[in-house]
Amino acid sequence: MWTRQHKKRKSGALVVPLIAAAFLSYFGFHAWHGQYGIYSKYAFEARAEELRADLATIRKDRERLEHRVRLLRDGTIEKDMLDEHARSALNLARSDEIIILRDRRASN
User: Fold this and answer.
1) pTM to 2 decimals?
2) Do the Cβ atoms of 81 and 74 come closer than 8 Å?
């Protein structure tokens, strides 16, 4: 006849579910907050939107500068453009002109 030497404990039935819950919690946390998780996806999308806005302003500035260069580069230079560049480069004005000084950082 066989005799039982130890009592059967009920806590043994909780070991596997606790390990599974810890395992799922760990990977669930990193799926949400990890480097490539769901939360990071929203942060990446927000950063991409900021960069798209910066790109749009930089493209506008570039187009404006290309237009100014195109006006100077043609076979015929426009008189107003030539006059503007000459005055800017030489820092000169006529005696009958009113000069308004602007802060360059504020105009950009």
Assistant:
1) 0.47
2) no
